[in-house]
Design a protein that fits this description.
Bound molecules: zinc ion
Structural class: alpha/beta
CATH class of the largest domain: Alpha Beta
CATH architecture of the largest domain: Alpha-Beta Barrel
CATH topology of the largest domain: TIM Barrel
């Protein structure tokens, strides 16, 4: 209730921020589609309020200095959840809206769960959520060993889920979804060794090549975690665009390897969605931080 009231009030300022930030690129980061109706309302709002661009438009802007249209927004999805195909694609096609999907190459054509869901499955939701948070701050090798132990020591059968197949990727691509790179196994890059990161890129690169997809060089940092070292490795592997997960609208000059994204969910109610996409959020957050 309180949350709805706050967003309803904040939403009075959305038109102002939409205007102030009309020259700032907005990139939205979704994960799965849990509410198809709400998602369609969001897409229709974006179509009336913004110019929805695709990855090629962004590349031309960043590398060929071509101007973006006013009030540009790019829509992205992380992790390659099956629901994006099942519930998202029909809406995107119907509304003729381009998007970008960041896939974890190791999971394509598999029935393997996301590793964070696996932890929740074994530990239950409450303990699982805490553990997922904790594990994200561990060195990558410790995280991998922990997952192996969980699988080996549990009586439960390994969780099986629907992951996207290669032919699903083709269907998505045909429907206007640019298939991009979210690493091979979704480790935290700032918690991984140089060897591990290099391996992630080599594995995903060979699969993008095998599948004849050209999105290897468009990358979203798993969990948004990055540091100087991982950025150097991105450059060494010819990654051209890299996306963060920092809940911010972009500055006027966009650094191609540090593109900000605003987190949204398919079930975010429309007032809250309007507020978040306006950029108020990132304005308020930066001012709260500077007060601290
Ligand atoms: Zn992710």
């Amino acid at each position: 209730m309180m949350r709805n009231f706050i967003y309803k009030t904040l939403n009075l300022f959305s038109p102002i921020f939409n205007r102030i930030y009309k020259n700032r690129l907005r990139v939205l980061a979704y994960h799965d589609i849990v509410d198809q109706n709400q998602f369609e309302k969001q897409i229709q709002y974006l179509k009336t309020q913004f110019n929805i661009i695709n990855i090629e438009d962004l590349k031309e802007h960043l590398f060929k200095k071509k101007q973006l249209p006013k009030s540009s927004v790019l829509i992205t999805f992380d992790d390659g959840d099956f629901s994006v195909l099942k519930y998202g694609l029909p809406i995107l096609k119907k509304n003729k809206v381009p998007t970008c999907l960041f896939v974890i190459t190791n999971l394509i054509n598999s029935q393997k769960p996301f590793w964070w869901d696996e932890i929740r499955e074994y530990l239950g939701n409450d303990d699982g959520n805490k553990k997922v948070k904790e594990v994200k701050s561990w060195p990558n090798i410790k995280r991998e060993n922990y997952l192996k132990e969980l699988r080996n020591n549990s009586d439960k059968p390994n969780k099986i889920v629907s992951q996207l197949t290669f032919s699903d990727l083709v269907e998505l691509k045909t429907g206007g979804v640019f298939i991009a790179n979210h690493s091979h196994t979704h480790p935290m890059l700032d918690m991984s060794s140089e060897y591990e990161i290099q391996n992630e890129f080599e594995e995903s690169k060979s699969l993008f090549k095998k599948w004849n997809l050209n999105g290897f060089d468009v990358f979203a940092y798993p969990n948004g975690n990055f540091d100087k070292n991982s950025e150097l490795l991105l450059e060494r592997n010819q990654i051209k665009l890299a996306f963060l997960f920092d809940h911010k609208i972009n500055k006027k000059n966009v650094n191609p390897l540090r593109i900000s994204r605003i987190r949204v969910n398919s079930d975010t109610v429309i007032n809250e969605f309007k507020v978040k996409t306006s950029g108020i959020h990132s304005f308020i957050a930066s001012h709260i931080r500077s007060l601290n």
